[in-house]
Design brief:
Elements: E1 3-4, H1 7-16, E2 19-23, H2 32-43, E3 47-51, E4 59-60, E5 63-66, E6 78-81, H3 88-97, E7 102-105, H4 112-118, E8 123-125, H5 130-134
Parallel strand pairs: 1-8, 2-3, 2-6, 3-5, 6-7, 7-8
Antiparallel strand pairs: 4-5
């Protein structure tokens, strides 16, 4: 699988995606996971699912938070990750298990060991913010 580092390619990944699952969403408007995801939701170009076991069952942006990627009811194009790099590997494994096309590691979530370990099994986007890219759509 290829890695995506260039912003034009990141934009193309986002443009071709229909379903985005956000892992690590927070209900706190000051958190990057909140305000970045809000931009994607407001654009209205993607079906967005929110994943965080801590907030499962709550609603953010009128969307019910799911406990895991396995609970997303349709195929996922982008798994958008807002987590500490130390917690990224299980998310990548779950993304592979559900057949997701891309793992997008938000700035601050990059784990280069994990990228190296799984780059032959799933495509990665990093060094690009999905909220910034969504502004170009």
């Amino acid at each position: 699988m290829e890695e995506v580092q260039h912003k034009e390619e990141a934009l193309e990944v986002l443009r071709s995606a229909k379903v985005v699952a956000v892992v690590g969403i927070s209900p706190n408007p000051e958190r990057p996971s909140y305000y970045t995801t809000e931009k994607v939701v407001k654009k209205g170009r993607h079906r967005v699912y929110l994943v965080n076991p801590k907030y499962a069952g709550q609603e953010i942006f009128g969307i019910k938070v799911l406990p895991s990627l396995k609970d997303v009811p349709e195929p996922v194009d982008i798994v958008n990750v807002f987590r500490n790099p130390a917690h990224v590997e299980p998310i990548v494994r779950e993304a592979i298990d559900i057949g997701a096309k891309v793992v997008w590691l938000q700035p601050g979530a990059e784990n280069y060991e994990v990228i190296e370990r799984y780059k032959d099994r799933i495509r990665f986007v990093y060094n690009a913010c999905i909220g910034v890219e969504a502004g170009y759509l």
